[in-house]
Amino acid sequence: MVYAYLLGGFIAYSLLGLFFYCSYRGKKTATSTANGFVKMSYSNGIFRSDIEKRTDIVIVGAGVAGAALAYTLGKDGRRVHVIERDLNEPDRIVGELLQPGGYLKLIELGLQDCVEKIDAQRVFGYAIYKNGKSTKLSYPLEKFSSDVAGRSFHNGRFIQKMREKAASLPNVRLEQGTVTSLIEEKGTVKGVHYKTKAGEELTSEAPLTIVCDGCFSNLRRSLCDPKVDNPSCFVGLVLENCDLPFANHGHVILADPSPILFYPISSTELRCLVDVPGQKVPSVASGEMAHYLKTMVAPQIPPELYSAFIAAIDKGNIRTMPNRSMPAAPYPTPGALLMGDAFNMRHPLTGGGMTVALSDIVLLRDLLRPLYDLHDASTLCRYLESFYTLRKPMASTINTLAGALYKVFCASPDTAREEMRQACFDYLSLGGIFSSGPVALLSGLNPHPLSLVLHFFAVAVYGVGRLLLPFPSPKRVWIGGRVISGASGIIFPIIMGEGVRQMFFPATVPAYYRAPPIH
User: What class of enzyme is it (predicted)?
Assistant: First the structure.
C-alpha cells in the first residue's frame, strides 16, 4: 500500500513538472478569464502566475490616441484596462485626415490595416486657392514606398477599427464606463474611479494611468495647467457625388474672413470645413447659418464645387465644432500621464493632431519597453518626465506651424498682414524647396523646428522683397518693416508657449532616458 501511494505521488509530481515545463517553453500560454485578462503568460523571459496578474495600465478614453495606445502596449505584453464613455461609432467632423508622417507612425505601430476596408482615400498633397488663382503642393514622398501617402476617412470608422484591433488582444480589456476621478495617494495616482454602463461604481487600479479622454477632458486639470484658446469654430458639411478640381488632394481656400477646407472622406463624399473666427457662430436652428454659408462663403469656393456645396446646405446636416489650441503644460505626476487632445491641442487647419498623437505613442512604447516592473514608481516617474521633453521636436513643429499658418491664412484689414498672406501664397507657388520644405513640415515628414522658423521668416523676407522691388518708397519700407514685425508677433508667442529650450535644444534638458534621433 505504501509503495502504491509513493508511486501515485511520483506520477502526480511528474505530470505537474511536465505541465510547468511546457508552459515555460512556450512564448505565451494564455487562457482567457471572465474579465478578459489572460490567466498565464510567459513574457520577457519571466513566468508570471495568477497572483501577479493585475492590471499594468489603465487608459481613460478609446479615441484615436487611447485605442492605438491600448493595442500598442497590449502587444508588448502589458495588461491594459481601457475605459471609454461610449463604445458606439463616433460621429465627428474632425480627425478625418491623417498626414503621411502619421501614416508612417501607424505602420510602425502595426496599425496600418485600420485604414483598410473603410473606404479611406489616399491623399498626395494640397491645392491652395486665393483670389481665383491656385497652386498645387505635393507631399515629398519620393524616398518612401508607394503605399506611403496621407489618408482621409470617416473618423468613426477609423476609431472602430482600432478599437476592434485592441480588443482582439487577450490582455486588453475594453469596457464602457465613465471615469469620474483619479485615485490619488500621497501625490501618486493609483488608478481611477468609474461608473459602468449599468451605473455600478467601481475602481480600477494600476501602477500607470494614462488619460486620453479628448479635447473636452474632465481629468486634465488634475494633471496639467490647461490654457485653452478658442480661436474659431469649424462648420462642417458633406458634399456628395462631386469631384475635387485636384483629385486626391486637400483643398484650402484662402477666403474672407478665414480658410475653407475640402478633402475626400470616402469614394463618394467630400468633407467641407468652413472656419468661422471667434467663439460665437450664426445659429444653425434659426437658419442664420445656412444664410451665412450661401451669401458669404459660397461665392468664394471653386466653381466646380458650388452646386454640391449649395445642395449640402439645403440638405440641412450642418455641424459645428469649436477649434481649440492648448500647449502641453503638464504637472509631472507619479503614476499618471496625459496624451492626445487631453494633453495638447493645435488648430486643426493642418490636420496634424493624429500625427502628434501617434508619434507620442511610438515614443512612450519605446520608453516603457525596458521597464518590466511598472510598480517601481521612482524609475517610472523619471522615464515619464523624459517623455515630455523627447516629444517636443515633432509635436512643437506641428503645433507651431498650425497656429502660425492659421493666423497668416486669415484675412485682415491690416495691410502688413495681408502682404504676409499674399507672400505665403506666392512663396508656396514657387515650387521646389519653397513648397516641398513647408509641406514636409506640415505632413510630419520633417519635424525640425529650426527648418520651420527658417521657412516662416523666408516667407516674410520674400514679402518684403516684393514690396521693395523694383523701386522702394517710404510707405513700402514701412509696411515691409511691419511685415517682419508681424511675422515675429505671430510665431514667437507660439514658440514661447511650446518652450524654447525643449523645442530647439532638447539635449540640454535633463532626461533619464534618451530616444534615438528622429530621421
Answer: oxidoreductase
